[in-house]
Design a protein that fits this description.
By secondary structure, this protein is an alpha+beta fold. The protein is built from 7 helices and 7 strands; from the N terminus they run αααββββαβαβαβα. The protein has a 7-stranded mixed beta sheet. A hairpin with a 2-residue loop joins β2 and β3. α3 (74-83) packs across α7 (238-252) and α4 crosses α7. The chain is globular.
Length: 263
Amino acid sequence: RQVMILAASAASMLAGWQRGAQAETWASARVPAARATLAAQAPTRLAGRLGERGRRQSRSAVRAADDGEDFVTSDEVLMAAKRLNVDLREEFNGPWYQMRLFSGDRELGKTSGWAQPWGIMHLETIEVRRFTGYWTRKPAGVEGASQERPVEQKDFAKLSRWFGLLLSVSIGCWNRERSPFYCKEAHLLAIKDDDKQHSRLVRYYKGLGFKTMRGPDELNPADSIVWGGEGTLMNVQASDFMRRWTPVVRDLAGLTPRAETPV
């Protein structure tokens, strides 16, 4: 009987050992597979946790581009720049953008800034430079230009407005078409280095459609840190801006049909 008991115990231990070996083999086979599955799913899960807002913003951008309004596009802005005899060069890196206007190898103006996940575009700068070497030949659609004389003061004022408009509208097109975060609103600071220059900037930005949010005496410490200076904080709604300037840019691009002159 003792022999039988010992034999039964040995058989039980052997069966247990075999089950344990099988379980270990199964686990050793499943663990790497599970790890591989988790490793493959990790970026997706991480993106799901950290990038949900980004995906919502991307979907918002798609909706904005298909909102039923016929806004000007980046291609049309490039056409307008070409008719003005300038080259619009764009640089993007994630939410950061920079657009520059060139005539030959001379930079006429530039703008830069970035899109923010909470839906507000930060416009860091919009600059237009003046110099007499711009006109090497008569740009299409510009009245009063000639190859024989320098540009007059009134031409400079008109061209500065057009160049600044092209740069500004190119931001709006990038926001709608390629930005990782669609921004419904844009903010900028009309910097105040001196009163005359500051007043000129505020008038210029108001002419583009921006409205005053806070004056120089109303900025809080956070504003000064974000913008790196003092001035007037201004904003504009993206759809209002594009709605206002779409027909103007298309006219500069030669895309607006002109009414026939009655006989």
